[in-house]
Amino acid sequence: MSKKIALVGIGKIARDQHIPSLAASAAFELAATASRHGTVEGIDAYPDLASLLAERPDIPCISLCTPPHVRYDDARRALEAGRHVMLEKPPGATLSEVHDLAALAEAKGLTLFATWHSRHAPAVSAARDWLANQTIRRLEIRWKEDVRHWHPGQDWIWEPGGLGVFDPGINALSILTAIYPHPLHLTRADLRFPENRDTPVAADLTFADGRGTDLRAAFDWLKEGSPEWDMHIDTDAGYALLSEGGARLSINGVETSAHAGPELEGEYPALYARFADLLAAGASDVDLSPMRHVADAFTLGRRTTGAAFNW
Ligand code: NAP
Q1: How far is the CA of 168 from the centre of ligand 1 (A)?
Q2: 22 and 133, same structural domain?
């Protein structure tokens, strides 16, 4: 039987992915929403999560699609009310917030799922399996897109906790931490901030794995035209390209996986299937490694100031 679930924060990703995925899910039934302005036709709507929790004890699961800097209070509220919680990426504005939520979920015997949608892109597991047997010489991430196209008017991305270019960049780091066969840590970060904003518009990162591998990432939010969401990987067995945000993998020029179709197809249905599995097992899944690298970039990063950003 399907479980009732409520969505919080009816904005871009809720409309693009969560609502269609839930409509197609046998495991969940969208029973209500909590959002100040957004609603879904035919679904009970509450202006905030507190009133939803008070009036709907019949809904055991809450999925939070709000921006990260407002997510902690609602996640805590939902767990304290005895509900299972699924978090959009990044799971919070700070690591400590999410550690706190994980401890609360464990203490109350509830499921907390910190999602990383890009890990469910079609070619990510094939890349992980192939790399497990290779000696890697170089891995270069190039994650470049036009913020005006992908985040039109979203001012929260420029506010503290909004992460700036790390909002898409953390997707790359979620893939990197899923496919890279060795522990790695950040050793250098150069962050470029628009002079009128609190979060970076570009970042160049260097990592070390203790094996001398050349490991880099370049994130840029001002690339016009087609986005570049690619990883270039040189190994002793040749060159691999994981492209289109993890949708395609080619090894030595040979495509190894069929293109899954429209952007992001399949990632969110996979997240809800995983949430259902976690609920059935009474388990949580909170992997903070992508966010740890972002936090390291902010603590170690050299700051440069560039031109003002205006929509
Ligand atoms: P969004 O549309 O700007 O925000 C989602 C909704 O959150 C808003 O419509 C708003 O609804 C509510 N909200 C509550 N407090 C808010 C505040 N202080 N500022 C702004 N909105 C607030 O954002 P989004 O693009 O859906 O992203 C939400 C999360 O999903 C982010 O963590 C993002 O990284 C992740 N995500 C986004 C995408 C994408 O393509 N956009 C892809 C994957 C993941 P009400 O006004 O009705 O309350």
Answers
A1: 13
A2: no
- Edge-to-edge, what's the strand order for the sheet holding 248-251? 254-255, 248-251, 238-243, 228-235, 136-144, 214-220, 202-208, 185-194, 302-306
Span 270-293, pLDDT tens digits: 999 999 999 999 999 999 999 999
273 belongs to a structural domain = no
Whether residue 289 lies inside any domain: the answer is: no
Q: Is 108 a catalytic residue?
A: no
- Please write the tens of the pLDDT for every residue from 107-146: 999 999 999 999 999 999 999 999 999 999 999 999 999 9
Do residues 228 and 149 both lie within one domain? yes
Which of 114, 133, 164 marks a domain boundary?
114
For atom 3 of ligand 1, the residue with the nearest CA is 154
- How far is ligand 1, taken at its centre, from the CA of residue 17, in Å? 12
Q: What distance in angstroms lies between residue 182's CA and the mean position of ligand 1's atoms?
A: 33
Structural domain harbouring 191? 121-261+294-306
In a domain, 128, yes or no: yes
Q: Please tell me whether residues 128 and 255 are part of one structural domain.
A: yes
> Domain tally for the chain?
2
pLDDT in tens, 6-30: 999 999 999 999 999 999 999 999 9
Tell me the best of 17, 65, 150, 229 to mutate to test the pocket of ligand 1, counting ligand atoms within 8 Å of each CB and taking the most.
Answer: 65
Q: What is the band of 1 on the pLDDT scale with cuts at 50, 70, 90? A: confident
- Which of 114, 129, 149 lies at the terminal end of a domain, its last residue? 114
Pocket of ligand 1 from Cβ distances under 6 Å: 9-14, 35-38, 65-68, 70, 88-89, 117, 154, 156, 167
pTM: 0.97
Residue 199 maps to a domain: yes
Q: Which listed residue (89, 108, 144, 223) is catalytic?
A: 89
